[in-house]
């Protein structure tokens, strides 16, 4: 239990969604290659997705089309809907821009690449759903400002972690990855109004003690116990809280897409 919770909580507790127009320049060079799920040499690789960027370049390894769409439109998994296979098939995507394009520019270029490479068409929609809205607690945030142009970094020491240059999008994204593991059926959305990036430390020892005391061997934690334990960490250490409420959520709906990308 301790190892499982640490693996989930430290990286996962470390968006305001933007659906911009795709009128940016295209990549200078790009390739999309299917990754064979039946190749035994892929083994461990298939279980991991990797997305790395540098100014002007984007490398995605073993990503599903759904994950690529999430990154391209800067949304969460629950905001992408379409054919069931979107989360199953895997691809390697390597792309290079003509200049040192920023991440927002690379996202727009990727939208164009996916639309052409997979002959994909999408439309935008809004749906009201029950969600956990991440908001600022009554005494304000307990985080210090980070580098607004930085990227999230995490260092661990037992049950403690030091988080550097973390945005609210990062926190929401990682909490949403934990939601399925915790058997919680509501997504997390950002309604903090906080911009930029922040630094903070996090100690999950109290979370582990609370949850471990509430379950027996081989049992899954009760969702209410988990929610209360996460709330305690958010409020006491970050100055944030999550409230269950109905909220409009922007969606990306994939109308059609080919499983096999066009030759490139």
Low-confidence stretches: 1-23
Mean of residue pLDDT values: 84
| N-to-C order of helices and strands | HEHEEHEEHEEEEHEEHHE
Strand content: 25-35%
Number of strands: 12
Largest sheet data: 4 strands, antiparallel
Please give the order of strands in the largest beta sheet.
Answer: 1-5-3-2
Q: How does the overall form come out from the CA principal axes?
A: globular
Oligomer: single chain
The percentage helix is 25-40%
List keywords for this structure.
264 residues; alpha+beta; four-stranded antiparallel sheet; four-stranded mixed sheet; 7 helices; globular
Structural features, described:
The protein has two domains: 2-15 and 128-249, no CATH class; 29-126 and 251-256, no CATH class. Residues 1-23 have low confidence and may be disordered. A hairpin with a 2-residue loop joins strand 2 and strand 3. By secondary structure, the protein is an alpha+beta fold. The N and C termini lie far apart (46 Å). 30% of the residues lie in helices and 32% in strands. The longest helix is centred in the last third of the chain and has 16 residues, at 223-238. The strands form three sheets. It has a four-stranded antiparallel sheet. A four-stranded mixed sheet has the order 4-12-6-10. Helix 1 (2-12) packs antiparallel against helix 5, helix 3 packs across helix 4 and helix 6 packs antiparallel against helix 7 (223-238). It is built from seven helices and twelve strands. The chain is globular, with a radius of gyration of 19 Å.
């Amino acid at each position: 239990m301790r190892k499982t919770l640490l693996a989930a909580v430290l990286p996962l507790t470390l968006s305001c969604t933007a659906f911009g127009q795709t009128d940016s320049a295209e990549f200078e060079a790009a390739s999309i290659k299917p990754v064979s799920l039946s190749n035994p040499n892929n083994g461990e690789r298939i279980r991991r997705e990797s997305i790395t960027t540098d100014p002007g370049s984007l490398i995605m390894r073993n990503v599903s089309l759904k994950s690529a769409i999430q990154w391209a439109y800067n949304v969460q998994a629950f905001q992408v809907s379409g054919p069931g296979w979107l989360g199953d098939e895997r691809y390697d995507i390597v792309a290079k821009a003509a200049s040192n394009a920023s991440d927002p520019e690379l996202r727009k270029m990727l939208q164009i690449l996916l639309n052409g490479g997979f002959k994909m068409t999408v439309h935008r929609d809004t749906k009201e759903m029950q969600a956990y809205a991440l908001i600022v607690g009554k005494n304000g945030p307990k985080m210090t400002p980070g580098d607004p142009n930085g990227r999230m970094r995490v260092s661990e020491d037992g049950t403690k972690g030091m988080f550097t240059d973390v945005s609210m999008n990062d926190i929401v994204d990682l909490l949403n990855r934990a939601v399925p593991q915790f058997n919680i059926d509501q997504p997390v959305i950002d309604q903090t109004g906080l911009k930029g990036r922040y630094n903070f430390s996090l100690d999950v020892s109290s979370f582990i003690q609370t949850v471990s005391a509430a379950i027996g061997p081989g049992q899954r934690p009760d969702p209410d116990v988990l929610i209360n334990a996460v709330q305690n960490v958010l409020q006491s250490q970050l100055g944030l809280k999550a409230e269950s409420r109905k909220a409009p959520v922007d969606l990306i709906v994939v109308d059609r897409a080919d499983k096999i990308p066009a030759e490139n």
